[in-house]
Design a protein that fits this description.
The chain is an alpha/beta fold. It is built from ten helices and ten strands.
Length: 328
């Protein structure tokens, strides 16, 4: 089977095409166009994101077909992100996917964006055994999920306020850097020292919270305006990783599962990956990260999730609407 996936939940216009023959899953193309217009606004403006998707969706779609070297007749289904995300942005991809599905008379499948990130792990690590624990960390989401099987999940914990990536963006802005801020924090940290003892968030169960840590950084900078930015970034990043590892350890101890997938945009952070692998070596936990291009929002992960959902549950109704907030 060959499935095409469309992702427009935020500020990336992405189209990917994957094939599955027997148990072999292969990416035929994975085209992503990022919207740099949001840099000047220190965050994503929903209206601008929607307009950019309208302009980009057709050329990105055509490029994906050209790179995959396939025609419309070879596509077996169209998958698209329908939730969660910015409603206007989702609507562009959803409407386009329905139009393509109708025009070529092929099945249409709606995919949860968070499920797409889980399938990014399957694309990079087909050897991963089920069940496993999955940590999804991105600009809009922080979720700890038990992956029982493909398309079968149990949410173990989620953020009660800011998402992990959002905290990186806001701290970067405090330090004078533009959106998106994760790369700036990581780069600054390389030459910084862990010289500030920011408080480790204290949240019940397996949930997350980053607002208190973000506020601690804000007050520290107000009281110490000339403190080296590198040290602030390094200290902040170190506490975030400590907090994430603490929650992972709790989940591992509760469930007795020692395989952990880590997906989403923040998973591309090299310091985070190094700390996680070191922790895994010490405590016998196997970590799996998608390839860098699959950590970010992309169409290939949506295509594979849609293909699997179609095989198990059939097509989605064309009446499917975009949803801003929904659990996995």
């Amino acid at each position: 089977m060959i499935f095409l996936g469309i992702e427009t939940s935020c500020d990336e216009t992405a189209v990917g095409i994957v094939s599955k023959e027997n148990s072999e899953e292969k990416i035929l193309s994975n085209i992503v166009s990022s919207q740099w217009v949001h840099k000047r606004y220190a965050g994503v403006l929903p209206e601008l994101a929607s307009r950019a998707h309208i302009q980009l969706i057709v050329p990105v779609f055509k490029t994906a077909l050209e790179v995959a070297k396939i025609g419309y007749s070879e596509i077996d289904g169209i998958a698209v992100t329908y939730a969660p995300g910015l409603v206007g942005a989702l609507l562009v991809g959803l409407s386009f996917a329905k139009a393509v599905s109708i025009s070529i008379n092929k099945p249409f499948v709606g995919v949860n964006h968070l499920e797409g990130h889980v399938f990014a792990i399957f694309l990079s690590h087909p050897e991963i055994e089920l069940p496993f624990i999955c940590l999804i960390i991105s600009g809009g989401h922080t979720e700890l999920v038990l992956v029982k099987d493909r398309c079968s999940y149990e949410v173990l914990g989620s953020t009660i306020d800011d998402a992990c990536g959002e905290a990186f963006d806001k701290v970067a802005r405090m330090l004078g850097y533009s959106y998106p801020g994760g790369a700036f924090i990581e780069k600054l940290s390389e030459s910084g020292k862990h010289s500030i003892k920011f408080p480790l968030p204290n949240v019940a169960k397996l949930d997350f919270s980053f607002s208190g840590l973000k506020t601690a950084v804000l007050y520290f900078l107000k009281e110490n305006p000339t403190y080296p930015k590198e040290d602030v970034a390094c200290s902040f990043q170190n506490v975030v990783v400590d907090f994430l590892l603490k929650k992972i350890n709790q989940a591992v101890e509760q469930l007795g599962i020692r395989q952990v997938g880590v997906a989403g945009g923040v998973a591309i952070n090299r310091y985070l990956q190094r700390r996680f692998f070191e922790y895994g070596t010490l405590y016998n936990i196997k970590f799996y990260f998608p390839r860098p291009e699959l950590c970010m929002d992309n169409g290939a992960m949506i295509a594979l999730a849609g293909l699997e959902r179609y095989r198990r549950f059939g097509p989605s109704p064309l009446s499917l609407s975009p949803i801003a907030r929904v659990r996995l």
